[in-house]
Every structure is written in structure tokens, then in C-alpha cells.
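Entry, Tuesday afternoon. Goal for today is a structural model of the target with pyridoxal-5'-phosphate bound, before we commit to ordering more compound. Inputs were pasted exactly as handed over by J.K., no edits. I checked the ligand SMILES twice against the vendor sheet because last time a stereocentre got dropped in transcription.
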Amino acid sequence: MIAERISDITGGLSFLELPGFQSSFDTYVKLEGLNPAGSIKVKPARELIDSAEAAGRIGPDTRLIESTSGNLGIALATICAARGYPLTLVTDPNANARTVKYIRALGADLVVVDRRDGSGGFLRSRIEYILERLMEDPRLLWLNQYSNPANSAAHAKHTGPEILDEFGAPDWLFVGTGTSGTLMGLLAHLRARQAPTAVVAVDTKGSITFGGPPGRRFIPGLGASRRPEIYRDDGSFDKVLIDEADTVRLCRAVARRYGLLLGGSSGTVLAAVERYAGRIASGSRVLAISPDMGDGYLDSIYDDHWVREHFGSAALAALDRPVTAAV
Ligand SMILES: Cc1ncc(COP(=O)(O)O)c(C=O)c1O
């Protein structure tokens, strides 16, 4: 393939088996970290911009703006650099230093909002900042991944067909939930094609999307402190919450056993597969979506000091346990 634009390259067709991850069924990961910009977010980022272009909302003076400190920021900065669109990303002091450097290297403007909101976090302050800027400057266009249907449409259009056409319908599909764009888009596509796949939505304990109480979370990617507008629970999928200590345990074990350095959300989703092992019929094909690789987590999930500081010595000691087949 000779691509014209960086965002036309897709690495999302990579499916990897994890032999023996569980003894009675076959587990595979879809490695979205091999996409340009290093994550699954290149697909929603491209769709957010393509749909704004198609609706005639991007003129010669338009500046795009979005609240993100993670993979979507990197993906938007990548696409905007290639298309020549000015971009402002609004983040907070928790943003990871590597992500900040990555985004700045691509030429996007990064605004750090350090005013805490009523709940002690920064999310609402970031949104307020964007709303203030939108009032002052009519040239700004807010992409708003949490409410924009282009987010889930990207996965209905691309991630869903990649799975059904390349891998075939899995018996079980485990999907992490951040904005819920991946989950909503995949559900739409699987249902449209009547795939006989059981879907499990996975989130981190402390996220409120599934209705649980809010709590502190340290690993970026999954979870939300306010329910994303695009999320709909129609009762057709299971929901499971995973402790971040289990996320760390799975990431570290998979790195050592398979030579596969995965990002935090991937460990969370694999912890959910492990949790479900007793319910999955033997011989099933189980697919887990891995949104990114682990390079960005070397100073957190893969760092002993960080793990001890955030989860305690017992969690660090538990990391010695290998990934074992369920009994
Ligand atoms: C690391 C990571 N985890 C999880 C997700 C979850 O995705 P979504 O926002 O589609 O729910 C993403 C984003 O796509 C991500 O980059």
C-alpha cells in the first residue's frame, strides 16, 4: 500500500493470539497500537475531521479545539499537521510529559488549565475554558469526542468491518470504555450484521459510566467522571469493572510471557477476560481490543516505584504471579 496521508495507513488489521492465556478457549488481541499516532484514536480523529469537512464546517480561518490529554490529542495533532489545520488541545497538569512533548512536536497548541472544578478534578474546568473561548472566537470549532456521533461512527465504519472481515465473528468480544465510541460503534456494526458475538464492556473501578460511584483512577485511557453523551446501555452487552491493580498485573505478566508491551486499557480488558473465564464455553474464540502499546506507560505501569506508590507493596508483590490458565 502506498498511502497519500499518514492517517490512511492502518495497522489495525493485526490480530495476535495469546497461546495458553486461558486453557479452555483461544484468546486474541487486536493490536490498535500499530496504527499511525500509536493508537485506535486515529480512526475517530480522522472521522471527526472528515465529517466536519463534509459538513462545510472547516473554512480557511477555522481553528479546531478539543479537550484531551491523551491518545486523541496525539491523533488529532497528527492529522491536523498533515492537513494544515491549526489545532488547540486543552489539557490539565495531570497530562503525561511524553504526550505533551509528542503533541507539541507535531505543532499543535497546548493549553494547560490548572483551575480545579467543583469535584476536585479538571474536566469541567477544561470544558468551561473551551466554552469561554467559543463565545469569544467564532472561528473555533469544538470537535467534542464525548458527544460527536462521528466518534462511534468511525468504529462502525472501520473497526467493526476489520474484525468481521479479517478475523470473523468472535464468540466473545471485550471492549474498553472511555468515551464509549469504540463500544457503541462496534455494537452497531455487529448488530447490523447479526454477528452472534457476546460483547463485554470493560471499565475501570471509579469510573461512573456504568453507574458506579466515582473514585480515584491513575491510569489514563478508560473511565469517565461524567457519563459520555454517546453512551447508551440498551441491555445487549455485559458490563464489568476492573481494579487498576489488576490492570497493572495483567500488563506486566503479558509483557514477560508474550514479549508484548501493552498499554493500560489492554491490561484492563485482558483482566476482564480472565474474570469471565468460567463463563466462556470451551473452544470459544475470544477477542480483546488493545487500544495502544505500552511505551507511554514505562514510567507508570511498568515502573516498580510508581506501582508501590499508587497501589502499595502488596500489589507490587502480586506482580510476580504469572498469567496462569484458569482452572
Ligand atoms: C488507551 C485507550 N484506552 C481506551 C480507549 C477507549 O476508547 P473509547 O474512547 O472509544 O471508549 C482509548 C481510545 O480510543 C484509548 O486510547
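The domain at 6-40+149-318 is CATH 3.40.50.1100 (Rossmann fold).
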